[in-house]
From TrEMBL:
The keyword Methyltransferase does not apply. GO terms for molecular function: transferase activity. Keywords: FAD, Flavoprotein, Magnesium, Metal-binding, Transferase. Its EC number is 2.7.1.180. This is FAD:protein FMN transferase. InterPro entries: ApbE, ApbE-like_sf. Its cofactor is Mg(2+). Signal peptide: none annotated. It catalyses: L-threonyl-[protein] + FAD = FMN-L-threonyl-[protein] + AMP + H(+). Pfam families: ApbE. The keyword Transferase applies.
Length: 264
């Protein structure tokens, strides 16, 4: 849907299904409707590419091939998947172990992540014990926001709101009738909002690195950061953390805005 304005800017709204959810896009720009639709198509293609690369649940994805093969022999990764896994491994330490991409491994324990070995020389990966799997689901949507931001910058789109499944949001520039973008009463301006948690006792999906079990309780944690990937990591880590770890992480990342619902 496209709506021109008297000031020369036009407002385009589009949506599509990707990453097992709905993606809503609002673009506000002086570009034509055709140009803005090209931007939407680029975003759609980029998300499809990320799914083919890093979808844990798709047996045809590059990540699934890694999980099947890396326990027996090293696998050379695409440059992008190597960078993604490398970043996630580094943030395991930077989040006090609360963000762990190996929590879905067989016989998981807090040392399982030490079985994932990356080679800088040939960008390969190897798992030094059987049953290890890497799952990027607690990271991928945030990474997708950063990918989308690069596309918007390339096309010189200064005002946009991207919403992936109501849990990962990118806000650039300003709303047509105001400063920034308000999402769930949180004002965003050139920022990402990422959310992790359980919205009901039955819908639990985040595994605790402390014990390998699903985190209980109805709670949502939202983090506002300049980078979607880091925000997604932090929101996942904060939700999985115990009280002491959460306080420590909020001190380490005090520059980020954190919202907890309901408040502790």
């Amino acid at each position: 849907m496209y709506k021109p304005s008297h000031e020369g800017n036009g407002l385009l709204y589009a949506w599509f299904l990707s990453m097992h959810t709905r993606v809503d896009i609002i673009l506000y720009s002086q570009k034509t409707e055709r140009e803005l639709l090209l931007v939407v198509n680029r975003i759609y293609d980029a998300l499809c590419r990320l799914e083919k690369m890093a979808n844990f649940y798709d047996p045809a994805s590059e990540l699934s091939f890694v999980n099947r093969t890396a326990p027996t022999s090293p696998v050379v990764l695409s440059e992008e998947l190597y960078s993604m896994i490398d970043l996630c491994l580094k943030y395991n330490g930077k989040t006090l172990g609360c963000f762990d991409i190996t929590v879905h491994s067989e016989n998981y324990n807090q040392n399982t992540i030490q079985s994932v070995h990356l080679s800088v020389e040939d960008h390969s990966i190897y798992f030094s014990q059987p049953g290890v799997t890497v799952n990027l689901s607690g990271f991928l949507k945030g990474y997708a926001l950063d990918t989308i931001k690069s596309i918007l910058n390339e096309f010189l789109i200064e005002n946009a709101l991207i919403n992936i499944g109501n849990s990962s949001v990118l806000a650039l520039g300003n709303h047509p009738v105001g400063s920034g973008w308000k999402v769930n009463n949180i004002l965003l301006h050139n920022e990402c909002l990422t959310t992790s948690g359980n919205d009901s006792p039955e819908r639990r999906h985040i595994v605790s690195p402390r014990n390998g079990k699903l985190v209980e309780g109805v709670q949502q944690i939202a983090v506002v950061t300049p980078d979607g990937a880091i925000g997604e990591i932090l929101s996942t880590a904060l939700f999985a953390a115990d009280g002491e770890q959460r306080r420590a992480l909020m001190g380490i990342y005090a520059q980020c805005r954190v919202y907890i619902y309901p408040p502790c």
